[in-house]
Amino acid sequence: MTVFVEISIGSAPHQVPFEQAHTVAAAAVATGVTGLHLLEGTARNSTVDPSVTAAHLAGTHPALALLVDASTHHNAPYNLARRVGSLDRASAGRTGLVLRPGSGDEVSDAVTPSDSAVDDDAGRWSEYSQILAGLWDSFPASALIGNQTAGVVVDDDQLARIDHEGDFYRVRGPLDGPVSRQGRPPLVCADIDELGAEAVVPYADVVIVDAHRVADILAAVRRTLTLVGRPQGAIAVLARVDTDSSATDLLEWAERIGVDGFVVADSGTTDATLGAVHTLAAGLADGGGDTLREALGLVQPSYGLETATVLA
């Protein structure tokens, strides 16, 4: 079973200090946990940038998958796509992005039409997700030739500008580096209750849902997958559970309801997080998969954004 452990890296008493992140990562690897979900902070509860922590851990713990939190707020799509793509190459295809809803960024806002619906979080998240997918597809791995004899570094014919002009963003592309061995990094939504299935399902590869909401969200995801023309099983559903849960009970429940994996909720301090890794997470994990997509049971999307039906 795919299992991630949430971790908040920061200097507050209820967080894991940056210098102890390796201790938690090593414990996760040793117990067969799939990876860590690195949480993004808020104005009142700051964290070390999850992408910085991910880069710090990727080289030392190559077997560990990393889910990196980032919101649309203050993150221009091109910059975030490039940053996550670089992390994914560095981790040999074991990085995913948990895209959080939010406001815009100063780069994109400068070219956003004045009549855009600035409070449409679902619309912004969907458009941002479409751009990410297009950018990650814009530089296929096969385009990187690296032929010194012929003097050819990149096959320009394989690169594709996305030329996106939407309600919130203007992005041309392509990216300046290829995708990793897993292809497009998995796109994760942890806010489907807030955004709605219609906004999320056309684009997401994974959704994280609190355990008590799984049954309702699963039904909505399956129904919307059919409506947008994506196959059933195209989205992995991970149940977010607290540390008071029983591993045995959770595994039986997951098999019965059809959950694809778990995310163990943030436990706070280093000792509490290590306790969650060694008890609950270790009891749920069974490893598997060289890349994050393989671990999640996902294939590289073949439907293409140009053919998927997007619900208004």
UniProtKB/TrEMBL annotation:
Record-level Gene Ontology MF annotations: monooxygenase activity; oxidoreductase activity, acting on paired donors, with incorporation or reduction of molecular oxygen
Family annotation (SUPFAM superfamilies): Bacterial luciferase-like
Luciferase-like domain location: 7-241
Chain segments annotated as coiled-coil in the UniProt record: none
Alphabetically ordered keywords of this record: Flavoprotein, FMN, Monooxygenase, Oxidoreductase
Region (Disordered): 95-119
Protein name: Luciferase-like domain-containing protein
